[in-house]
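Listing 4. Sequential folding, example run.
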Amino acid sequence: MRGGKISRREFLGVARSAAIAGIVAAGIVGGIAGYVGGSSAAPPRTITTTTTVAGAAQTVTETRTVTQTVTGAAEPLRVGYVYVGPVGDYGWSYAHDMGRRWADAHFGLPVKSFYRESVPEAEVGSAIETLIDEGAKLIFTTSFGYMDATAEYAAKYPDRYFVHISGYRSGAAGNAPENMSAAFAEFYQLYYLNGLAAGAVTETGVVGYVGAYPIPEVVRHINAFVLGANYAYKKRTGKNIKAHVTWIFSWYAPAEARKAAIALIEEKSCDVLAFTEDTPSVLQVAEEYWKKGRRVWSFSHYSDMREYGPNAHLTGQIVNWGPIYLDFYRMVATNSWISVDIWTRIGDYMPYRWRRPVEQSTAGRPEGTVYLAPLNPVIPSEWQILIKQRYEEMKELLFEPFSVEGNLGEPIRDQNGEVRIRAGERADHDMLWNMDWLVEYIEEPLPRA
């Protein structure tokens, strides 16, 4: 997660992720035994056996030499994780811990993983040290603010492997040691689909967003959500959507998220709320309004949160970090490590990543590393069809939210009216990774440091 000045680098796309899987598959058969075999051949031993042959005049003594193999216990791969929040937040850190468990379960070999939770970004170094003391060979650090310390410890411990989540430093990028990689599971496409759902159901024409920090990751998610909402609402009514953003300056702050959500509903007339805060608090507020007879909608975030808002839940963005983690487990276990920078989107790590017909769409089903939560039947059928169509098209990048096509054929402008994306253009990796502007439909300016 996720802030600070971002350096530009070449857009790696989804092909890099596919390359990793190929490298891993090629090396796994020969390498696994070397890491966890734990067996050795004992010196030859002379074994004397006595055999009685029926009908023979005497007992026959036979001497033979055999080689016995003594097998030791397999050595488990030891993997450490550092989380910025509690594993029970039901959001960011919870999703990472579910990914850890998924990777452990699918590795197929002995593995021992352990974690440190609720680690402030300034204290990640000491957490890494404790994981190394426990013998961790592979370490995942899962918050943007952990990035520089992760690079520092990668340099300090060249015999260990490090993966930083949501940052931009890696050996592959040339700005960190070769034993450090970067990875992220990206949501902007799913936020656009959430926006389509929001624009399809809003009655006030006003949507809200509870934001954590005004950094590029959150900004692009807000922009994607609002672009989707404007597309659907304007298609329905001919009017532009109005969007409000409240910043709480925290990743894990359920009380602040709750307060912000209520204010957006009561003071701004928002009836659909998205958020980047690592608990179901905003969805719970929406559900409370339903019980009071007022329709307010919200979403899942990182995990399936439907139980917290059975009426208010529209859809949402869900992540499975497990396949990403599993690739790194395999690289370390097979001694086939290469530093990579991967950024997964809709379609990546799916068994069948290609577009399907709308009637066969997998939207709303668990698959890959990022996927859409189930669609609430309240979303009108014509918009469910479009959401499924876009979901399928995005598997092959046939459609991208940050394009004129994603904005009803109009150029995408910022709050100052400056055109940011013109006809024939799409936001590339650098624009998305460095996004520091809000689209014109948002009322509040972006906070500046």
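-- end of first protein; second protein begins --
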Amino acid sequence: MYERDTIAAIATAPGRGGIGIVRVSGPQASSIARQVFRSRQSPERWESHRLYFGEFLDQHGRVIDRGLAVLMRAPHSYTGEDVLELHAHGSPIVLQHLLTHALVAGARHAEPGEFTRRAFLNGRLDLAQAEAVADLVEARTLGSAIVAARQLGGQLSRTLESLREQLVQALALLEAQIDFGDEIELPVEETLAPLCQIRDELVRLRASYREGALLRQGATVALVGRPNVGKSSLLNALLGAERAIVTEFAGTTRDTLQEVWDCDGIPTILTDTAGLRPESATDPVERIGIQRTKGVIDRADVCVLVLDRSEPLQAEDFHAWEQVKSRSVVIALNKSDLPALLEVESLPFPIPPQDVVPVSARTGAGLSEFRAAVARRLRGGSAAIGDDLVLSHPRHVAAVERALDALDRVERGVAAHVPLDIISFELRTGVDALGSITGAVGAEDVLDDLFRRFCIGK
């Protein structure tokens, strides 16, 4: 157990804003409210979860702001303890003085993540939900936020708990057969029949990790091509802002430019690169830019080869293709608002037609289809999972892998007629693996389930 002291911290982001919040959690929350906040009613008489208007005081009793305070009494609060929130104007000076007064009044400064840590220790969140809090704060796209919100809401935990409970029930029956085999006549195959369905669901969850990892960790996409095909214009069009300098002169972009781009919900670093020419380029600055472009290509998850659709293919286009052909590639036929001299079907490059998209950086035509094509390549050719549950943490997928390995060993053990206690050990390994994701304890659950289902003293 942790020390049940009282902690405090500024809960809103650094800097000035309309509102700033100081959060306090612990047994002295009400006492601290009485010292730092003056209202018509004493905090001891406040209704839980109701906002009260009053004056904020510094440690010398001077009024430094006016605002709202709310006391959320245990256990119906984020941390499961008494929680006080002071809602002041978003002045860093005011918030710092409020925090200082709370510390003088008996709180200590909270450690990073300590409010969520207390929520976990007090059973308000499980481990997967606690991880989702950080994911939600760090989300860079709406898709990332939705995945984190589902996990915070318990969707992943409920699914895993249902699967784990089915394993626990099978384990309880199996251990009952080990201990009371003379009284229980049930084939092992029948006891373990639910494992096939459980395994199928775990395989589906494991496969979802690619999507979850993309949404949580993001990806990198490089715009590549010869000079003056419109790479910088395409970047600006995709971002909806003039981030790259664009001129009619070839070679304007000499260095890489990186920007964050929402690619169908996937947080993506989109990189504009210097135009690729053969190694015979004489300008030393241009040669450096080309070398940096090649480094970006090596690191990119998807390379977009940008071609000028209004011109025939040139030697430099073939040179650019040679640089990216070993990568995951999407071709953008830019300048499609002009008379076309290139068609998707006539391209000499071995690439599926769905990965070639006509676009116009000038008019915006084809950008939605382009975004979908890049997202499909990032997902390995698959469509978005949509509303289905996904795994997004390496820890989660590693635990699912351990559970699947354990179930595979159970299946092989049953086929080989190994002793039931060995099969029981492997099944328990699977239970513990799934339980590790949410922080649940498997062994006691097995005993409880066993006593509920059988009258052992008979």
